[in-house]
Design goal:
Helix content: 40-55%
Bound molecules: s-citryldethia Coenzyme A
Number of strands: 3
Oligomer: single chain
Order of helices and strands: EEEHHHHHHHHHHHHHHHH
Number of domains: 2
CATH superfamily of the largest domain: Citrate Synthase, domain 1
CATH topology of the largest domain: Citrate Synthase, domain 1
Distance between the termini: 40 Å
Number of helices: 16
Structural class: mainly alpha
Largest sheet: 3 strands, antiparallel
CATH class of the largest domain: Mainly Alpha
CATH architecture of the largest domain: Orthogonal Bundle
Radius of gyration: 22 Å
Length: 381
């Protein structure tokens, strides 16, 4: 095959519909609108497995036995604390520093500080992945506390990943409902096939670059409003609408301005995002538990109005907005919450790519000029 593509019909902009590789980690079935983690429908896992169990499943390929789960949670607990250089770096930053840019920098700094940064053996990648999965809730909570001018807290043992995050951010134990809600959120966002940030991580791994470079690049990709930042944008949309009475006006204006509804649409799902129904139910319960269903009510009515106007389905980010808001998480931290959940998926894909690697390098159809002749500088107009 020639180095370059030669026909326009070969071009699939955005790699839409292109099968770019094989994976056994998750199946995002756009036609059946199903999400499968290592053979389990997410409906099999939600409400039954913990995020720790699902993380183990995604990383190592099977649900853990009781002994394996005990060892896994001990590994996570023992690696939750932030290294002092990371804390010192965070505290040099202005409070207004963007949370995703800060998280991207902290992950990158973890690589700088790791003497085995460039060891790309599977064992070394696995060790780095466990460390990063364990510490990311601490990093995100620390970013939130730094932005609020509050002292950083230390993780307490014997508590799961979700409950630990809520304690580290708020400085008080979450209720069982809050801990379960965030645990389910983490499960639902843990992995999703070759989405943009995961594919970014695989592309970096494909050059035999290191784990931290792959994850730093993935954080950078997730930061975009067409991907992970849609949850923050969806909350800003709800806030702008303000009340159910304003929904129709907002919908008409958005359509008239040819703008996007944040948290709607998906490149792969041709119908309802299978995660959305779970997130909707959790957001509803959280709203009722705090006695303030306003954001859920606006969300539900907006979902209906956009369906009537444009037959668009909601995606994972839509009810994530009210869910995270009801957990008292500042809107600016929403996308870092997505990164907290997806760290498991990114890590699993880095390991899978490294285990059976082939450099990822697609073709391009050149549409620029050809056969130009050089013109000396003094003769150029
Ligand atoms: C995530 O890939 C993954 O798996 C990602 C993710 C994961 O778990 O990793 O699921 C997480 O990123 C979910 C998506 C979050 N992004 C948003 O909610 C941003 C708003 N959504 C859109 O910008 C859009 O739906 C995308 C980016 C998600 C998908 O875009 P596509 O596949 O490129 O679709 P498109 O832009 O070509 O739109 C097709 C049509 C267009 O209509 P026409 O211009 O052809 O008439 O649908 C319309 C679009 O205008 N459309 C929307 C819309 N999404 C699509 N119109 C209004 N609002 C929207 N949100």
């Amino acid at each position: 095959m020639s180095e370059q593509a030669t026909q326009p019909e070969q071009v699939r902009k955005g790699l839409e519909g292109v099968v770019a590789g094989e994976t056994s980690i998750s199946d995002v079935d756009g036609h059946r609108c199903q999400l499968i983690y290592r053979g389990y429908h997410i409906d099999e896992l939600i409400g039954r497995a913990s995020y720790e169990e699902v993380g183990y499943l995604l990383l190592f390929g099977a649900l853990p036995t009781r002994a394996q789960l005990a060892e896994w949670t001990t590994q996570l607990e023992s690696q939750r604390a932030m290294d002092p250089p990371l804390t010192a770096f965070l505290q040099t930053l202005p409070k207004a520093a963007g949370p995703m840019a800060t998280l991207r920098s902290l992950v990158s700094l973890m690589g700088v500080l790791d003497p085995s940064e460039n060891d790309t053996s599977l064992e070394s990648i696995k060790r780095k992945a466990v460390r990063t999965i364990a510490v990311i809730p601490t990093l995100v909570a620390a970013i939130g506390r730094h932005r609020a001018g509050q002292p950083l807290l230390s993780p307490t043992p014997g508590v799961g990943q979700a409950a630990t995050f809520l304690y580290l951010l708020h400085g008080k134990e979450p209720t069982p409902l809050q801990a379960r809600a965030l645990d389910a959120y983490f499960i639902l966002l843990a992995d999703h096939g070759f989405n943009a940030s995961t594919f970014t991580a695989r592309t970096v791994t494909g050059t035999q670059s290191d784990y931290y470079s792959a994850i730093t690049a993935a954080v950078g990709s997730l930061k975009g409003p067409l991907h992970g930042a849609a949850n923050r944008k969806a909350m800003e949309m709800l806030t702008e609408i303000g009340s159910v009475e304003q929904i129709e006006h907002y919908v008409q204006r958005t359509l008239a301005d040819h703008k996007r509804f944040m948290g709607f649409g998906h490149r792969v799902y041709k119908g309802a995002d299978p995660r959305a129904k779970h997130l909707k139910e959790i957001a509803k319960r959280l709203g009722e538990s705090v006695g303030e269903t306003r954001w859920f009510d606006i969300s539900e009515r907006l979902q209906e109005a956009v369906w009537q106007a444009k037959k668009l389905y909601i995606n994972v980010d839509f009810y994530s907005a009210s869910l995270l808001h009801y957990l008292g998480i500042p809107t600016e931290l929403f996308t870092t919450m997505f990164a907290c959940a997806r760290m498991v998926g990114w890590s699993a894909h880095v390991l899978e790519q490294a285990a059976d690697n082939r450099l990822i390098r697609p073709l391009a159809l050149y549409i620029g000029p050809r056969e130009l002749k050089f013109v000396p500088l003094d003769h150029r107009k």
